[in-house]
Write a structure and sequence with these properties.
- With 295 residues, the chain is α/β, with parallel strands linked by helices.
- The protein contains twelve helices and eleven strands.
- The longest helix has 17 residues.
- It folds into two domains: 218 residues, P-loop containing nucleotide triphosphate hydrolases (Rossmann fold); 61 residues, 2-Layer Sandwich (Alpha-Beta Plaits), CATH 3.30.70.20.
- Bound molecules: iron/sulfur cluster (SF4) (2 copies).
- One iron/sulfur cluster (SF4) binds next to helix 4.
């Protein structure tokens, strides 16, 4: 039986989808749980991380994620408005008053600091989320980490970037030997998706054999073409046929690595927060096949 092996070329696999609800997390979690080499599972869906509901990690470490945003010292500011004129994101606004800062719009370019001739602007940390890391799996063999966006914040990419930078095990070079990283990416094709998939060796797009599934997959594929990242497909909930996706994949030269049947037992396991390969014995072979297919 083919399984994950230590000599695979693919070291970082992102599991993504053009929209939510396609079974992306199911694939990420079950791929991790059926690995026969050391894996890290990173939940980069920071607006709604839910891998933890299935793998039930023991969290050992939590750290805040902050970005630097401007703060204006009113006593130094002469209300010239240069900073607001410079900011193309509307993150600092001056209406003939001390500038107002909107931290969630700030891209941290630092331009406003440089244009302020009065040195009235300084950088202050702005907390946007948290990173939690620990272990999961039957023998605590899986390194796990997830990012979580704070309520009311709108800055997922810095959390995702830090989560990927601070991969668990990164500080321990021997432990890195042969480790495969599985990233549960945010759905969609916007900035958080791009942050999660950037630098990956393979993006597995999970989709369904429906017109909606095809539409959202096409959007994701177009984004990934711009990033020049290798793509593979997993077709989930296959009942009558999957031609609508397989024909598109053929035209785009995207390999279809796995088709997951529309199985009520899989849906029930998911809705109860259970690992599919634990709850449905014959599903383990599906993910073993997926491991074998990944280059
Ligand atoms: S550039 Fe400096 S001095 Fe001018 S409005 Fe902005 S903070 Fe005030
Ligand atoms: S750091 Fe850049 S994006 Fe942020 S407020 Fe200043 S100019 Fe705007």
């Amino acid at each position: 039986m083919s399984m994950a092996t230590g000599n695979k070329k693919t070291r970082i696999i992102a599991i993504a989808s053009g929209k939510g609800g396609t079974g992306k997390t199911t694939v990420a979690v079950n791929l991790a749980m059926t690995a026969t080499v050391p894996v890290r599972l990173l939940d980069c869906d920071v607006e709604e991380p839910n891998c933890h509901l299935f793998v039930k990690p023991v969290i050992h470490k939590k750290s805040d994620v902050c970005v630097l945003v401007p703060e204006v010292d009113e006593s130094l500011c002469n209300v010239c408005g240069e900073c607001a004129d410079f900011c193309r994101f509307g993150a600092i606004v001056s209406l003939k008053t001390k500038p107002l800062v909107f931290p969630d719009l700030c891209h941290g370019c630092g331009g406003c600091f440089h244009v302020c001739s009065r040195e009235a602007i300084r950088e202050v940390p702005y907390e946007v989320g948290v990173i939690e890391s620990g272990m999961c799996g039957k023998n605590s063999q899986i390194l796990f980490a997830q990012g979580r966006l704070n309520v009311g914040r709108a800055k997922s990419p810095p959390i995702i970037r830090q989560l990927k930078r601070e991969l668990p095990g990164q500080s321990d070079p021997p432990a890195r030997q042969g480790i495969i990283t599985i990233i549960d990416a945010p759905p969609g094709t916007s900035c958080p998706f791009v942050s999660a998939v950037s630098g990956c060796d393979l993006v597995l797009l999970v989709t369904e054999p429906t017109p909606f599934g095809l539409h959202d997959m096409k959007l994701a594929v177009e984004s990934l073409k711009q990033l020049a990242l290798p793509v593979g497909a997993v077709i989930n909930r296959v009942a009558g046929g999957s031609e609508i996706i397989t024909q598109y994949c053929q035209s785009e030269k995207i390999p279809v690595y796995l088709e997951i049947p529309d199985d009520r037992r899989i849906a029930e396991a998911y809705s109860c927060g259970r690992i599919v390969t634990d709850a449905v014995a014959d599903s383990k072979g599906l993910f073993e096949r997926l491991w074998a297919a990944i280059p």
